[in-house]
Specification:
Number of strands of chain A: 11
Strand content of chain A: 15-25%
Strand content of chain B: 35-45%
Structural class of chain A: alpha+beta
Helix content of chain A: 25-40%
Number of helices of chain B: 3
Distance between the termini of chain A: 36 Å
Low-confidence stretches of chain B: none
CATH topology of chain B: Lipocalin
CATH class of chain B: Mainly Beta
Oligomer: heterodimer
Largest interface: A-B, 87 and 75 residues
Strand order of the largest sheet of chain B: 3-10-7-6-5
Shape of chain A: globular
Number of helices of chain A: 8
Largest sheet of chain A: 5 strands, mixed
Radius of gyration of chain B: 19 Å
Distance between the termini of chain B: 42 Å
Number of domains of chain B: 1
Amino acid sequence: MATKKKRTPNAESDSWVVIAADSVIDTQKHDSDPAFVRLRNPATDEASLYLLGSGDVQLYEVKAFQEDFRSWFIGQAVQRDGKLLFVTPMDPLYLILPYLIKSGKEGKFQPVEQLVVDEEFPACSRLLSCTRSLASLHHVTEEKEVGGRKFHRYSEEKTMSWLKKKVERTVAALRMRNVCVGEGVTSATYVRVKPESDGREEDFLRYAHGLLSEYISEQLSKALLTHLGLPEPSSPKEAEPPSKKRKLSDKPVEAGEDYTKFNSADFARKPPKKMTTAQKSLAKVDKTGMKPMSSFFSPKVKAEKK
Amino acid sequence: MSCNTSVTRLCVSSVNEAQRAPVHLTPCEIEHNGPAQVSQYFTATTKNRKQEQTVSFRGRCLRGQELSCPQGYTGLVLKEINKPGSDQEDRTVKVSSVFDKLTYWNLETPPNSDDTVVMAMDWPELAEAIHGPVED
């Protein structure tokens, strides 16, 4: 092929391929339908797409996995957009936390429904309907009860120990999945490890910290790093990804599509050592082999600007 | 700017009318949305060898593998119905198809455990660790 064929712009799709927790489509308990809503993403401070389950009792994260040059065959039809969305249960406390921190600066004990308000994202008050929200506030606030009414004040100390427990849970899950986290693999990467290589504890901690940093502000992420006793990465190569990631995640999304948003990029997969002739020629245009893995594990499903 | 107040309702009752459809993830972008004779020209020519499947598509050899949805998860194809004219209005999606496994295809490379979509299937388990309740 002498000239590269021009691609037509991808028009907004009206169809999405989703892998969703069974509880999303469980209609037994409530009569109201689940709803995709835009809420403030705690890491980017911008709109991301989430799902509130039937009756608002459960919050779900909507995460897109996407590679270049993928499309779907669904039954007897083609869907050009090859993205795969995952809808997984999410801890609502991550989304509530920024509001608590903001009002915590006043230092007063306040009723939580007065704290979780946002003109830009009115749906945020629905987070308080989630079963786990009120029950888990004590993980991040000090509570006072006066006349049967509860008042809360943000506590960084409690938040740090809550986040540390989250990190520990995540480390345990990573160990179980045999995820390779060590030796030159930075936190947001994701590679299977051969059974003989055993990651060091610090590598697991850093990796888990990287995953959790997708759900907290940059400031909190840094504080957590200190709390975990991990020094800030010293080499410039290691230090680069977080800032780069945040910058990229602020990019607007292409072509009027609600369900996409990826940040990038700490890690490039190694291309296969031996390439066939066909692969070599393809490699010139097809960069999928180099696509950073972290982009597939980013939670930023951001609403686009129109 | 898009409106943060609009919601997209997922019409859950549509699951009951949704059809089971075979789902394939192709290793190429196809510039088309809409009907295609998939079973006649694609599915009919796939060959099964143990775990791996092969098919010739536009003269290229594709190698594929079937993947099951993670336990406790269901595959859904959501379709928007009655698209509104403005982004201020609420939208509705319905479940048009359901699936519990999908077939993903690589161009010439044999399917392996480092393939993105294979690793994506691990995400729910990792998400559970990040989002599950912590003890006091």
